[in-house]
Amino acid sequence: MKANLKRSLFNPITLAGMLFFIASIIFTAKSYLLMLTAAQLVFVPIMLQLIFEVKRKHIIFTWIAMLSIFLLQVVPSSTGQMVLAFIYVLFTFFVAFYGLKRFFNRGFTNWAEISIDIGMMYLFIGGLWFFAYVAKIDTGFSPLITWLTAIHFHYSAFLLPISLGFFGRLHDSKWYRLIVPIILAGPMLVAIGITALPLLEFISVLLYIFAIFTLIVLAYRTSFASTVQAVLIRTSYSILGITIFFSLLYATQNAFGHWFVSIDFMLRFHGLFNSILFGMLGVVGWVLAPPETKQEIFNFPVSQMRGTLKGAGKRKSGLVDDLSVFVNTKTLPKTIVDFYEQTDQYQLFASVKWATWFKPLASCYKIISTQLQQLNLPISSDLTEMTFKIQAVDPTVDGRKNPRAWIRRVKNNIVFVAIYSQHETKGRTYMNIALPLPYSSMIGILQLEVVDGILILSSEGKGDPGIYLAVGKTLFKLPLSEHFLIKETGSGSLIAQHKMRIFGIPFLQIEYKIIQNIVSAG
């Protein structure tokens, strides 16, 4: 722990930032301006060093950005100040770009890392507002409000999400996953509320209060690397629990005109508490023992098929050769096993049911899907027969083990082209399904289990399961999930239910009737 502290506080970036900050105290005319300067010169650079490995180019660029912030205090020329502020904007842009890159290398998985990504992206907005303040750009607000917005995006939108992400590396629960999106949406909701909808600002602050106090409770229930770190982080969050009420009073004033709180009061108490106590204590707390990420690298095989289906060959009888490699088939009815291993001996009927809220989007997408002949589902919920064929796919083209394409049609239109394969991770075999799209593929990794004679396939779960988008060498996890339930209703007869969600909200359900061909049954 002492080694971490020494390494983080006594390195070229941190030492330079502290020296520039001390020098800035001498030249800054208005002391409250130092709250933002502290974030720019000390807090932001230290937290960035905890996120990624600092290389020589990072050190040089950060030095230039910090020097620019210091020189702003001493350069009298307005043009010179604009140039220096623009250099800092470039610094925040590259931080945001790195955050975006981190996000696209992973996608919608691991709320702790998403929080860090969003925090890095928010910093660029803070940089733009800072530039607007220095350049005296008319933002529609007073210069002081413009400056306050810049400081808001450095503390509430950068430091807090980064701290929240580090905390998520230590603690994961349903409550944590609930409050992260609330806290991440907070800065934008407050900004919109201040700009146009004061009532929205009031509501967003109420949600923020709920999230902050939930975070405080979780922090007191979480074990940290040391007692000192626990005290610092818990105190940092507790300070937010106090200062957030100042924000509520201010939002109430804007929305209803009651409980007047002046800007001067917000600067003296809200700003000072957040910068010195929340910012400083939180940064030092994480410096003591920065938690390691728990994000696993995706290392399962991914189809190289892009655009249209290529390398299709002879007919195959089933979606899989042997269902027993996925589950214990002795616990399943024979018809379910037979359907997966002898799929071509069955007829398939489907009823597509779009959620009401999603129907306008589905209708618009239908225009595109008809041209793509992929994910081309009917809009009507009428029971419709889907004809199909299964063809082997050249593994040298696809890149996975023993792939086969299940091509489904409704009349003359292709509905799905899904290329089935499988892979094993840590002793468990998963279905690995690819749907070729223009310049990309949608990848579905499903885990199978048997419950009371019912086969369940799901993209939800820890590890590999999920729905991904593969573009080039990038694999991005989408905010989608799917859940299949297959049940025998009689000899040679099955029903299946396919549910899909986006961000946890249901938007599609497909009901299948699966019947064995009479000739095959005979």
TrEMBL record:
Transmembrane helix in keyword set: yes
One Pfam family here: YndJ
Keyword annotations: Membrane, Transmembrane, Transmembrane helix
Keyword Ligase: no
TM stretches of this protein: 9-27, 33-52, 59-76, 82-100, 112-132, 144-168, 175-196, 202-220, 232-251, 271-289
Protein name (Swiss-Prot/TrEMBL): Membrane protein
Organism per entry: Siminovitchia fordii
